[in-house]
Design goal:
alpha+beta, Pseudouridine synthase, two-stranded antiparallel ribbon, 7 helices, 21% helix
Length: 253
């Protein structure tokens, strides 16, 4: 990172106190070094340290590289440990927004166990454990475009709220694929033709998944904390496929 990191930091500070540093991470930025992307040199962890005066911070959870939104760091290991325990106990609530192919039900639950996906390629040929995974969702808006992408003369899409109740790797992306409503822009679990249409129409092929809010009990004060993040311009741009009349009254702007 350059010496000017403090001035061009891609993270947006959402909340801070003596224990916590909560930021908005843009799509495309890794949280920390990963064996999958060995050549990357910029990480949210480094930029969060810059916001913390150069002192160490500790990620409480992770967001996939192509996912934007709320990311929580602790200022010391003990706070990170306590918040991690809250997450493992299901006491932390997260809200995501996604644009998906098709029209899902008005609301639903995806109770579908997922096999671990190790980051280390050397482990991928080995049998991995299957873990419980649960996601709840709610459909906020739907639209139909006069574009023939697959076998129909029109194409349907929906804006959905996603509430993960467990924290498995790529859970939301894999669960939406499981119910045949993959997230737009998902190169691994989505539909290539739809992804290409959105990339060509909007000039960018981002994953249409954003972590928009998190709620937890503060590990030091015991207070309930809710932190929300606005959507990136690249996400809002794609919402143009939905009529303004449909989006009015929704917490998406």
């Amino acid at each position: 990172m350059s010496a000017d990191t403090a001035f061009d930091n891609p993270l947006t500070l959402l909340y801070e106190d003596r224990a916590l540093l909560v930021v908005h991470k843009p799509a495309g930025l890794l949280v920390h070094r990963s064996p999958i992307d060995r050549h990357e040199t910029e990480f949210a962890l480094q930029y969060a340290r810059a916001l913390n005066g150069g002192r160490h911070v500790f990620p409480v959870h992770r967001l996939d590289r192509p996912t934007s939104g709320v990311l929580v760091f602790a200022r010391d290991r003990e706070v990170a440990r306590e918040l991690g325990l809250e997450m493992m106990a299901g006491q932390v609530s997260k809200r995501y927004l996604a644009v998906v192919r098709g029209w899902p039900a008005e609301s639903g639950r995806v109770d579908h166990p997922l096999r671990d996906e190790p980051e280390d390629r050397r482990l991928r040929g080995l049998e991995q454990p299957v873990r419980e995974a649960l996601t709840e969702y709610r459909t906020l808006a739907t639209t139909q475009l006069d574009v023939a992408i697959e076998t129909y003369p029109t194409s349907r899409y929906a804006l959905v709220e996603l509430f993960p109740k467990t924290g498995r790797k790529h859970q939301l992306r894999r669960h939406m694929k499981h119910i045949s409503h993959p997230i737009i822009g998902d190169a691994n679990h989505g539909r290539g033709r739809h992804n290409r249409y959105f990339a060509e129409r909007f000039g960018q092929g981002r994953l249409m998944l954003a972590a928009t809010a998190i709620r937890f009990r503060h590990p030091q004060t015991g207070q309930d904390i809710t932190i929300a993040a606005p959507l990136e311009a690249s996400f809002l741009q794609v919402l143009a496929i939905f009529p303004d009349s449909v989006l009015q009254g929704l917490d998406v702007r």
